[in-house]
Amino acid sequence: MPFIAAFIWSYLLWLVLTAGTNGLLWSTQELIAGLIFALIVAYATRDVIGEKAGRFLNPVKWLGFIAYSPVLFWGMVKANLHVAWLVITGKIRPGIVRVPVDLENDAQYTIMSNSITLTPGTLTVDACPEEKALYVHWIKIPEGMERPESSEPVAGPFEKWARRLGR
Amino acid sequence: MNWVSYLIYTFLAISLTFNTLGSIALHRFPDVYTRLHGATKCTTFGTIFAVLAVFTHALYRLHVTGDPKYLGMGLHSIVALIALLLTNPTGAHAIAKAAHLSGYKPAKAVIDAYEEKLGGEGK
Known about the structure:
- By secondary structure, chain A is mainly α.
- Chain A has 6 helices and 3 strands, in the order αααβαββαα.
- Chain A folds into 2 domains: 2-56, no CATH class; 64-165, no CATH class.
- Chain A has helices at residues 2-18, 28-44, 59-89, 106-118, 152-155, 158-165, and strands spanning 95-100, 122-128, 133-138.
- Chain B has helices at residues 3-28, 32-65, 69-101, 113-120.
């Protein structure tokens, strides 16, 4: 399964990078060369990619990621304007807070902490799956929010989405 | 000048505004963590809009001229954007964790829960 997943993803990437070599489609040479290189890459990484990589071939999951991108983008717009204001005024109240999260596997932790880091104003310093917590550097902690009870004030709806996408 | 050009210039203006703010943040903020916020986040947003401008330009030229090289231009910039969105948080996280483990404490911090955790483990 890791072999097939890696093969499909590298071949797709090759197709995207070489589109337009024959009209708007692909020339035969590019298709064959891509096949060979995708096979080499998939063979070389068969032990590196985990056994569960096959679930990322599930089309429902792709739709989930597409549906997630506007949520993430809207979060970035709001937070970017906020950080822009902080840059101009300089009124920061930084600190590292412990954010308890309820996630199960590594993929969910990766999605969650990457979303938090991509959103301006919050930056994941460390993820501790064994105590179900993230350590997040927050640039402007609201008064009385030094020990948040859930991830909602820090990350908004991201935890719900991470749980759904990384399953 | 038609409306597509205005759209492209708007995207570029937003992109440059946020890139400028990111550079200012590097000078204004007190320590490595807050500077990471300014440098990586404002730049990410700037890059998204720069890529959007390139993508719009490529699609428009493809529509007008039908030259397939513009298809490649648009798709390549999208791939670059996806690569950036995946690597940027990973790099920022690695820098922040490395800085904390080598002893840089957050300046002006009102709370440092990570230090409490490390202290509890007898680092």
